[in-house]
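Bug #77: duplicate submission created two jobs. Keeping one. Sequence:
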Amino acid sequence: MQETEQLTKKEEVKPHMPEGLATMMKSQGYHFVGKHSATKICNYTSDSLKGGASCYKHRFYGIRSWRCIQATPAIGCNLACTFCWRIIPDEVGFNWNELNAVEQWDSPESIVEGLVNEHKRIVSGYKGNEKVDMKRWNESNDPAHVAFSLTGEPLFYPKMNELIKAFHDRGISTFVVTNGTMINALKALKEMPTQLYVSIQAPNKELYGKITRAKNLTATWENFLSFLEYFSTLPTRKVFRLTLVKKLSMEDVEGYCELIKKGKPQYVEVKGFSYVGGARNEQRGLSYEQMPRTEDIKEFAREIAEKSGYMFTDYHEKSAVALLSIDKKAASERVIKFKK
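Kept job's structure:
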């Protein structure tokens, strides 16, 4: 199969992973595109198609949930964060190095085409639902946004620069969520995503080790700090995403503020952890009771805002996430202009 062929037929290419693991992911709603990419319809996309609630990205930044593709160009990840919803292979009996590079990476053009087509195929099933808003359904067939936040580490894909540009050339905006460990890949980006996120898993080295389960904690933590310093210089909209877990990462406000000072994001999202998917695996040691309540998140976010100099700007109840802005200008300009 030539690299430039469109990946529109799922049977043409098998995902680069053990078949049993692929079967498990399919049962969770993942749709594979090519050898190493995937998409999955978000609950908010589904709900918004039926005239229901949109996600916090709609409230905070103006993204129309029904026109958003939730995806990844790289299924594997180099961290094993306890709160992550993804399946971690060795936890479910698969001895597979998920960061083994494929022999030939799929082209950016084929990934764009495959993800757009798969998104259309998924939403096509909603047309017969009497609850569906047909105006939104028609718009959903012309996606305007892609969020690389589904699973894995997107910067592991070596042609991320070209992939972002390929989406932008179609008028599709991009949000990229990275775990903050691949600084060389970050430095290689010339085409900036519309909005670049870095996940802040913990406020200090000790908790970072407990949560990410990094194999070489000292090297990974130092690399993370260097990543944040370089991140602060990038000419795009930058966001920190904090995931709060009670009795684990919901402490050391000063530590979070130091990281914010280093990374200088325009926005900080303070989000409660969800006890779903892989996070329910007994090996992770988490429980339902560790999900913070609305008042817990708001209080913690306000304390961070007070000590960092940021502004508490908004809160999305259903997503359990607060938004902080660096200043009044950022708060007033947070809605992005999207494809009409």
